[in-house]
Amino acid sequence: MAYQTITTETRGPIGLITLNRPKVLNALNTELIGELCAAVDGYEADPKIGCMVITGSDKAFAAGADIKEMSDLTYIEAFSQNFGATLERIGKARKPIVAAVAGYCLGGGAELAMQCDIIIAAETAKFGQPEITLGIMPGMGGTQRLPRAIGKAKAMDMILTGRMMDAAEADSSGLVSRVVPAGDLLEEAIKVAEKIADHSLPIVMLAKESVNRSFETTLSEGVQVERRLFHSMFATGDQKEGMAAFLAKRSPQFRNR
Ligand code: HXC
């Protein structure tokens, strides 16, 4: 598929998506968001793909929603189009997605990264929700996902001041899972994705679903969901294979069934 604003490539079981609007620091316009969602749809449907990676350039993962495109939007257009809703597709992916972030990761870019399952940051990464400086607030999940990721104190600080957070602060705040040297970012992200893709895909998907449920429900309901999903795993061949391989002291050969 020929995309204009992203590039895609597969590396074994990994679907790699690179945001590619370098002149505007990968600002997320309607076209890019549409292409990104189409690429994720394609990898979700491809049984050979076990994990996705979304990345940007050295300078920017994405510097936010495209301000030029948004600047003349009217209320009725924003409401009618349900502006901002399309990107929710990323958070609804059933297969895991790793975000590999270098440089600016701002506004809608940070909201995109937070819809991925794991964020790996280069030392150069800078996270922020600068919408307040534009006379708006985050509108693609930032006011909801940021406090869940880093707590109210830091989230309010970021959203109300519009300041940026460097990679070290993002790491200590729990926004990212690890920080790596900039030159190693993609390689490290692919390694993490390969590790995930080595496991049984349906089990990985169930684990992801169970973790995500923790953000949507009470503890007792969540634990109940976890237990039911856990029980269901004993109906899979991959549970039999994983445990048999452990007991036989060999590597498991998961077959995604
Ligand atoms: C459109 C953008 C852009 C954006 C950068 N550019 N960010 N265009 N939308 N979000 C463009 C610039 O206009 C410029 O184009 C080129 O990219 C390079 O940017 P510079 O500003 O010259 O680079 P630099 O001086 O290095 O500064 C980098 C930066 C700055 C600090 C990241 O670009 C910046 O503050 N960008 C805006 C960040 C932001 O406010 N994001 C939130 C957007 S709102 P030209 O043509 O001049 O070369 C949002 C809401 C989401 O995300 C919710 C929607 C529902």
UniProtKB/TrEMBL annotation:
Catalytic activity reported: a 4-saturated-(3S)-3-hydroxyacyl-CoA = a (3E)-enoyl-CoA + H2O; a (3S)-3-hydroxyacyl-CoA = a (2E)-enoyl-CoA + H2O
GO biological process entries: fatty acid beta-oxidation
E.C. number(s) listed in UniProt: 4.2.1.17
One MF term in the entry's GO annotations: enoyl-CoA hydratase activity
Keyword Lyase part of the UniProt annotation: yes
Record SUPFAM superfamilies: ClpP/crotonase
Pfam families named in the record: ECH_1
This protein's UniProt keywords: Fatty acid metabolism, Lipid metabolism, Lyase
InterPro entries, alphabetized: ClpP/crotonase-like_dom_sf, Enoyl-CoA_hyd/isom_CS, Enoyl-CoA_hydra/iso, Enoyl-CoA_hydra_C
Similarity remark: Belongs to the enoyl-CoA hydratase/isomerase family.
PANTHER family, alphabetized: ENOYL-COA HYDRATASE, MITOCHONDRIAL, ENOYL-COA HYDRATASE-RELATED
Protein role: Could possibly oxidize fatty acids using specific components.
Protein name, as recorded: enoyl-CoA hydratase
Organism: Bauldia litoralis
